[in-house]
Amino acid sequence: MKWRQLPLGPLQTNCYLYSNEQKECLVIDPGGDGNKLISILQQQQLKPIAILLTHAHFDHIGAVDDVRKQWNIPVYVHKNEKDWLSDPSKNGSQLFMAGAVSVSDPDELIKGEGRLEIGSFVLEVYETPGHSPGSVSYYAKEADVVFSGDALFAGSIGRTDLPGGNHEQLIKSIHNKLLILPEETIVLSGHGPDTSIEQEMETNPFLNGF
To answer: What keywords sit in the KW lines (predicted)?
Structure first.
């Protein structure tokens, strides 16, 4: 299994292409620049089979419909944010941008934690709310990576001042769901560079002393 990070959209949100040897891939958080993303997928000869969202803020969903229509694939999001994709007041675009972001509703709802199998891909879904009520992280044991969305960053954590955010809840999510992963696990965040569970346990100032 391989992964590639692509900063896309107005806030340079990290989109991830998680692929297997057959060049099938999962597209995680396609935040924008749909034509660019489609071009890269075609150049790499990758075949998307699903779109996974860590949460439904506008900067993570901007290219959802472009990719979904190009390959006719399903979009997954947590049930707590099932109506956020099409609602600019909920996905935050109404607060931050002159133009509202609205995409079609999801095809599949993540209703809880557990094993998620899509083709040959096997992921563990962890509910990690706090940045938003439907935030999830996807752990790929085979690749030793966790796609943490905007829950955990290198040296930081997600903001909690947006609607549905909760600082205490986010800290608990990180400690109870992410820091229990193997220390060598690579953390692939929604913004900024990758890091590791070990690195964040040792140096993240937001997590010390909890």
So the answer is: Hydrolase, Metal-binding, Zinc
